[in-house]
Amino acid sequence: MSVLYRSDAPRAAAWAAYFAEHAPDLDFRVWPDAGDLSEVEYLIAWQAPGEFLAALPRLKVLFSSGAGVDHIDFSAVPPHVPVVRMVEPGIIDGMVEYVTFAVLALHRDAFDYVAAQSKGTWAQSEVWPASTRTIGVMGLGVLGRAVLERLATFGFRLRGWNRSRRTLPGVESFAGAEELPVFLRGCDLLICLLPLTDQTQGILNANLFGALRPGAAVINVGRGGHLVQADLLAALDSGQLSRAVLDVTDPEPLPSGHRLWTHPRVFLTPHIASMTQPDTAAPVLLENIRRSQRGEPLSDVIDRSQGY
Ligand code: NDP
């Protein structure tokens, strides 16, 4: 029974150590030391190119090593092979930390004060209570819900928008394209935690920015493809948006000289909002392998027809 890990190299040793201790019956291999590929039944991968998958005739499950699956070409994955995304406590905690950091930095004008300090300027801004800010989260999945739960502890006014309707305590909820404009109206801060699909590509665009409260800020922790960069730059330049915090871009990294690198009101991070943590992810993944071995339904299988 072979498991092949073909993902982030620095964390491979931690994965291998976990499997060696907790699943000695499984032959855990780390790419490129993969041995006979025809023996591989479980693949843990970020990229899974078609020609590589074609060399795995016994593949039973493809595990994405990250929460998103937009990088996987489903047409290259045999129809009988389920694709499982990564849902694990470490990714959730990381995202909650990052979004909380970004929200509080925006709420308390931290980016303005960094700029003021660099000029030696002592200039106080009004301090607004959290209860005066309306924060909207797009995508009420595992991550969006965890983020809202934490933000609620600060007393912000919270809204959520989702494909299907979700009722969350203390969150005004909106569903579907027809309720998007009402959801956006009055948002001071918008957080994108959607998966990237044909429906959500380019959703952060001029129309959407124009529906937010003037001077609103945007945090994109979904995927770079959600954002129309030219529309963001225009909205920042016109003052419709005050700031953007971007953890994801398209492409990654941005080419040198791109305006987003140097825009004074853009805070850019290199796709680090959250990362799969071997210590917490390996037990979750191993449990799914055990389910597969017992012939039980797997957790966190993505719906190929929806793209997430
Ligand atoms: P989930 O699959 O748990 O949730 C996705 C949510 O988005 C679901 O609630 C779904 O609605 C909703 N949704 C999907 N399509 C639409 C649509 N067209 N309109 C409105 N709502 C929609 O994903 P996660 O919460 O785990 O992760 C979300 C994304 O976060 C990932 O896909 C990934 O791109 C990104 N991510 C970024 C990271 C980073 O470091 N920057 C790290 C990890 C993830 P429904 O309930 O109806 O299915």
What is the gist of this entry?
The chain is α/β, with parallel strands linked by helices and 308 residues long. The protein contains ten helices and twelve strands.
Describe the structure.
With 308 residues, the protein is α/β, with parallel strands linked by helices. It folds into 2 domains: 2-88 and 276-294, NAD(P)-binding Rossmann-like Domain (Rossmann fold); 90-268, 3-Layer(aba) Sandwich (Rossmann fold). Helix content is 32%, strand content 18%. The chain has helices at residues 12-22, 50-53, 89-107, 110-118, 142-152, 176-184, 206-211, 229-238, 259-262, 278-294; strands at residues 2-6, 27-30, 40-45, 61-64, 83-84, 134-138, 157-162, 171-175, 189-192, 216-220, 241-246, 266-268. The strands form 2 sheets. It has a 7-stranded parallel sheet. Strands 2-1-3-4-5 form a 5-stranded parallel sheet, covered by helices on one side. The protein is elongated and about 65 Å long. The protein starts with a strand and ends in a 14-residue tail after the last helix.
